[in-house]
Amino acid sequence: QVPLIESGGGLAQVGDSLRLSCTISGRTFISMAWFRQTPGKEHQREFVAAVLGIHRRETYAHSVKGRFTIDRDNAKNTLSLQMNSLKPEDTAIYYCAGQSSDSGRPDYLESSYDYWGQGTQVIVFS
């Protein structure tokens, strides 16, 4: 069973909104995050947002702060990313990530997370 499955990607115009969802199954995660892989950077994923620990502290990349909102719903076993005021530079493959144990690394690093979804494509056009 795949622990993390993303959905909700697609095409959007500049200024539009999209909501991504990540379905969580079979695992418990301490912290969860969204990363994205932008065109031309196939070997690295950029931190977008995270919800950390039992206190669910939220943290955002500077480029999305004020436009994106991360939310974790334990009752529904989902992680979502509400994306508003989309820009062309938001075009990317978006990945849901889970941290099953404390890695001791900063939460904005890919290496802090040990479970990943398969990704969902978002394309923003003008």
Give the DSSP E fraction (strand runs of 2 or more residues).
Answer: over 45%
Gross morphology: globular
Mean pLDDT level: 95
Biggest sheet, in brief? 7 strands, mixed
SSE string, helices as H and strands as E:
EEEEEEEEEEE
Question: What do these coordinates show?
Answer:
0% of the residues lie in helices and 48% in strands. Strand 5 and strand 6 (57-60) form a beta hairpin. It contains no helices and eleven strands. The radius of gyration is 14 Å and the shape is globular. Strands 2, 4, 5, 6, 9, 10 and 11 form a seven-stranded mixed sheet that branches. The chain has a four-stranded antiparallel sheet with strand order 1-3-8-7, with no helix packed on it. The mean pLDDT is 95. With 126 residues, it is an all-beta fold. It has strands spanning 4-7, 10-13, 18-24, 31-37, 46-52, 57-60, 68-73, 78-83, 92-99, 115-116, 120-125.
Topology (elements, then pairings):
Elements: E1 4-7, E2 10-13, E3 18-24, E4 31-37, E5 46-52, E6 57-60, E7 68-73, E8 78-83, E9 92-99, E10 115-116, E11 120-125
Parallel strand pairs: 2-11
Antiparallel strand pairs: 1-3, 3-8, 4-5, 4-9, 5-6, 7-8, 9-10, 9-11
List keywords for this structure.
single chain, 126 residues, mainly beta, 7-stranded mixed β-sheet, 4-stranded antiparallel β-sheet, globular
